[in-house]
Protein kinase domain-containing protein (Ancylostoma ceylanicum), 127 residues
Amino acid sequence: MELCELGSMRSYVKKNGPQSDRAVFDVHFCYHQKLCDFGLATHLRKGETACTVVGTPGYIAPQVFKQEYDQAADVYSLGGVLYTMLTGSDPPSKGPMRFDGLGMSAVELIESMMEQDAAKRIPLNGM
């Protein structure tokens, strides 16, 4: 995943280590970074669902594998990106996530973003 001018997020985290909760939440005010991969992007109108399975294991919402998903799948994937930025590891595709050293607010946010049930997942405008 590219992090604009800084190269890939994976190399940045490997070089600098996992980022603190505060550093990640403040990055918007300092750098206005944008994470994107338009090669896999699709535009969905309100109420539409997509049916193509694309992505990296651990970052893919369970609904994607059922081939019917909406914008809630993006929240799940964004939770995976946040997990990687704070822990230095990819989110596990199976088994529990490890949150060693993270503050409770970061853990709760990631867990709510990566909720398996899309209906219970925090919406983007709820963060």
In short: The chain is about 40% helix and 0% strand.
